[in-house]
Write a structure and sequence with these properties.
alpha+beta; Alpha-Beta Plaits; eight-stranded antiparallel barrel; 11 strands
Length: 192
């Protein structure tokens, strides 16, 4: 599993209806993308749910590097780049993925943190994988994933929720659409 996210931070007065309309018109295009586990079309609106910015920030979980590369180099990413400029696409290697009992994602939480220093890496990532299990077991959770960027030694915890009441720490996003053609093939549990 591979995680990827890019963020388009938009002006304070930006009409987020433009992003909502874009996702309504184009979101279905990845509903059957080969190699994609899921794409959560996420936004934050300045002043809502603690957000200091207007932002479009889709989050992906990929089953295959080939599917991710096909998206990045084969046309999917180009349309966004043409319309908004080319954002940096962060990537993380998957550590854990767990399913919850929720059914319809309305909100997402993302928390990034450094991999703790001064400990064995095996212990640090085992604890991080446990966070995915803990989050997925909470009421209203649809799923949870944890991944690591070893170039920055940074963990990312990502989860989808039915409710907008924070049940964990992190930045809250609204889910506009979920494309999940390969969600059932995302490997469960820890990834090593």
């Amino acid at each position: 599993m591979h995680a990827m996210q890019y963020e388009l931070t938009l002006p304070a007065g930006y009409d987020m209806g433009i992003i909502r309309d874009r996702v309504a018109r184009r979101g279905h295009l990845l509903d059957d993308w080969d190699g994609l586990g899921l794409k959560a079309y996420l936004i934050r609106e300045r002043g809502l749910r603690g957000s200091p910015v207007n932002q479009y920030a889709p989050f992906y979980l990929w089953n295959t590097v080939g599917g991710m590369n096909s998206f990045l180099w084969g046309g999917g990413f180009q349309g966004l780049s043409d319309d908004f400029g080319r954002p940096s696409a962060r990537q993380w290697t998957g550590l854990a993925y767990e399913e919850g009992e929720g059914t319809h994602p309305r909100f997402a939480l993302r928390r990034r943190q450094p991999v703790p220093g001064g400990r064995l890496l095996a212990d640090a990532v085992e604890e991080a994988a446990g966070e995915a299990r803990r989050l997925a077991a909470l009421d209203g959770a649809l799923l949870a994933a944890t991944a690591v960027d070893t170039s920055r030694w940074e963990l990312v915890h990502f989860s989808l929720w039915e409710q907008d009441t924070p049940v964990a720490d992190g930045e809250m996003f609204e889910v506009l659409h979920l494309s999940a053609p390969g969600r059932d093939r995302l490997p469960r549990g820890r990834q090593w």
